[in-house]
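User: I'm putting together a teaching handout on how multi-component assemblies are represented. Below are the sequence lines for each component of a complex, exactly as they appear in our records. Could you produce the 3D structure of the whole assembly as structure tokens, so the students can see both representations side by side? Please keep the chain order the same as the input.
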Amino acid sequence: MAEFSWQAQSPLRKALSPGRLGLAAGQAGVAMTEISDFSLVQVMARRGRAADLAKAAKKEWGVAAPDRPAAIAGKGATLIWSGPDQFLVVRIGNGLQNAVLPLAAVFGDAASLSDQSGGRCLIQISGNKARDALVKVSSIDLHETVFPVGAAAATSIDHTGVNLWRGPDAPGGSPIYNLLVFTSFADSLWHTLADAAAEYGIEASRTPLA
Amino acid sequence: MADAVQTDRLQRVDASGQTGSVASATQSHRLAAGGLVDRAKPLSFSFDGKIMAGFAGDTLASALVANGVKLVARSFKYHRPRGILTAGAEEPNALVELRSGARREANTRATTTELYDGLIAESQNRWPSLRHDVMAVNSLLSPIFVAGFYYKTFMWPAKFWEKLYEPAIRRAAGLGKASIEADPDHYEKAWAHCDVLVVGSGPAGLAAALAAGRTGARVILAEEDNRLGGRLLSDGGEIDGKPASDWLAGALREIESLANVRIMARTAVFGVYDGGTYGALERVNDHVATPPAYQPRQRLWRIVAKRAVVAAGAIERPIVFPGNDRPGVMMASAVRSYINRFAAMPGRRVALFTNNDDGWRTAEAVRRAGGIVTAVIDSRGDGSKAQREPDTRLLAGVVSEVHGGVDGVRSIVVRDTNGRTQQIEADCLAMSGGWNPNVALSSFHRGRPVWRDDIAAFVPGQCPPGMVMVGAANGDFSLAACLRAGHEAGTTAAEAYGAKGKTGATPAGGDEGYAIAPLWHVEGGKAFVDFQHDVTASDIKLAQREGFESVEHLKRYTTLGMATDQGKLSNVNGLALMAEATGRNIADTGTTIYRPPYAPVAIGALAGHHRDENFHAWRLTPSHHWAAERGAVFVDTGLWKRAQWYPIAGEKDWLESVTREVKAVRNGVGFCDVSTLGKVDVHGPDAGKFLDRVYINTFSNLAVGKARYGLMLREDGLVYDDGTTSRLAEDHYFLTTTTAKAGLVMQHLEFCRQVLWPELDVQLTSVTDQWAQFSIAGPNTRDLLKKLCDPSEDLSNEGFPFMGVREVSLRGGMRARLYRISFSGEMAFEIGVPARYGEAMARNLMLAGAEFGVTPYGTEALGVMRIEKGHVAGPELSGTTTADDLGLGKMASKKKDYIGRAMAGREALIASDRQVVVGIKPVDKANRLRSGAHVVPKGAVPGPDTDQGYLTSVCYSPMSGHWIALALVERGRERLGEIMRAYDPLRGEDMEVEITSPVFYDPEGGRQRG
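Assistant: Of course. Below is the structure of the complete assembly, with chains in the same order as your input.
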């Protein structure tokens, strides 16, 4: 009997070769990192049940579900606003586990849940030139005062839907932007982002969600 | 009028004896001191192959001036010799081919091209050389090339037009040649956001940026030039009691220290769009030979600004007099710029022709630089209030002739108010016809400029929302007024958004007089209005005589203002001449308005990153890289790249590969990545009710664990899309769409949910990207799946019936969704796993099917098999067909309402003679069918009256052994067996075909249920 193995494959497996890209001199201005091993579930409130979702989230992760564009880090999960009465739950995980079942236990019949763990690729853009690179692809105002840590947006990059949110700053103080992009577009968007950041020098890598 | 430029040391290089450096050897007209060029940084460049020298800080034009070059171009139509007219973006004459090879850029303005070491420029529109241009003969033919010439040639015999006149005219008239090689540089686009956008960094713009910046507001200061300061760089003056250059240095120091102010030099704001969005072009690396690695040449900015203060300055207006286009005739303000900013003397013996006080500043500048002012010709006559210097030779009158040629002006003829003429020596004639506020940006939302008699110019009318125009752009020409208006506008704009910091005191400057008395035209010989398009004063009169009096007609008939300078110099003069010719005033004559772009924008900059392989984004299927490793040929379907077929060694063409794949599936087993189909989770207690309203058939009664084919209509009753939808739980359906309509159907469903039926408790999520989905088809499908699935899974007809759906366990610890649905007509399943396991799935399917000869197949084989089975797809779901046309009319439920039901009952949509889907086969089986061929009755003459349909989908059918097609044919289902004609005039083909059932293979459908 043949041995079947189920090796998860990143949609960036060809596009991302870890190491230095673009301008080679000096310190890389931008780090582009694929964050792997996450589970992602789309949570949508059933009609009139948004308040129940907020309550359930608070109970489970210690934070209320976002009711405006924001990314809220709770215990064991980050909740990212994705539209009115809906949000995404990002947790550590992999596709062999059922991502929906544990959340069904949290939200009961108040939510409709869809597994998107395979449907999205998470790309982190950081470094002191991260904003300079992102303004080439994003129409969102990323200024400190407008898009601070924890800000989120459901927006588009290169005509493709993207959930963008700002995580806690890196130890050096430079901002970290998270881009949740459609799996099928990931290869294309990675190239677009790398072209935008090339003049600043890029350090490309991948790392599991921590 | 004060002048900040230090004058005591100014001497010409050749006079001062400082000719030691190589750099100055060619610079016969360079001043020894002063100006903003860096004499420590000599640069060498070539013009028409001649090597010359300049300094850092020069433009190509200023370097040419410094080298004593007078002749730089030939005009568009008459090939008249032309020199440098201006020192700015409005330049109509000094257009050159810049750089060489793939980087060659035609029609580049020498006046805005920053000099760099090694710059190569060529003059254009001349042959064999700039000095000896054969086409200058056009000038003798000028009575023929008058206004409307191009249109009039259409009246000549038409047969000559395309072959003779047009090519001949295009060769004779024209400007530079663009490179035909691909541009090796890259361009990009970017966004910026601010509270206050200040356009222009002259005194008004700087005062505005300083005031707004001091409040802490986010400010962007955009300046087209590489250096900030605007006219302060050329005209000096006094601000706050000190020389303007000192004030400027202090202002720049302060502004650069403000973290909330972003200075964007070399950035021209060219457009105003909705919502306070401004288009701007940053010339990032136009000032170097080649951009540094990874840097763009130009960057197109979209600046989103809550408020904008536009201090775009004013453009000096030429005077329309005979000979005004001779090399050596230059705008008076440009003469000042070359002397004061660039330390280059346009001439040693300069005459000045002016109708206003401002022009007189040029006489002063020339004298301070050591030049001689041979005469000032002031058309205002005795009424002139101009400041007269004791030794100035003032002549009241006009310039009526200019003597000179390719080597520049030699002398001019002055006609006084009594009609007496005299000749004046000069090697440069400076002219000032007054100033036109640069109103362009104010017009971009249809704001119509307003005429002001006191300054004889148009000023901005209604500005786009959030924008104010200040300073010279608003008709305030004195330094004091510019500073005041700028400071005030900067303060107001910042305060409008809650900024509260102190804005400081208004900088104080002088209130210089202007005192213009318009002079629109001096009669005599050929006097140019539009230099770039060779439109003369007599062309405008001709246009008026021929009835083209409206400003819009005038523009199009004469091409006035339609050149690359977009009438920056010529518009107002042209309107004034039309007003004169029609006996109206200028206000009544009106003006054409401006449209973006204000400055030329390269197509490359508009395209940005989207060129070559990045023309548009692409989508990859989960098994893409696996397929690529197998050598699959990919096809673009929308944004997707799909495997079209998988050639193997020795196959001679695609048909052989596709035929092999079809046979392998029909006789064994194969699989195809169908992840591109749109997939939607439909959740909620009302999900079934929702689908009943969306589809023509019923889904609320579908059992959990079953799939059903669904068809949806548009509101107008025509078919929108189709696909299978499965019920995974009581409150969870999994809907699929076609690849092409995935996005549109999702939008449609969201519209239904949010707008039409908000009362339904239903939630939609696109899960297209979540699932890697493969169709596994062929008689050995079940054998393959038994190898792949956990032994506990019952895949028998009883345990997993046709149209059944359920989650299954696979060997190796994977869960998958298995759907028993078939598109190929074979025993088939679709299997879905999370996208990250798509590649593993492809490998495991190969492994599980190895002993059954499993064959991956592409979209071509998929298409062939669906045509053999008569399944409709994109070509039949064309937006013109009804459910019944497709043979699916029986699916429509009569017990419920659904989108499109009412409109589907319209007379024409249920007419008996509609074109419906049938099969087609050639009578001569050797013939190849072609999609798009028309179906006409046998014996009829093909034409609109006899056309009865067309072939929609065509393929070679391996199972039939000949070409087959699906077609839409009038009353087709009543005509089975009829012989008709497939007529294809495009390919010159015409053949007899037989109308058949659309199902060519396994009509009983036993195979898929087996």
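A couple of points students might notice: Residues 34 and 123 of chain A are 5 Å apart (CA to CA). DSSP finds four helices and twelve strands in chain A.
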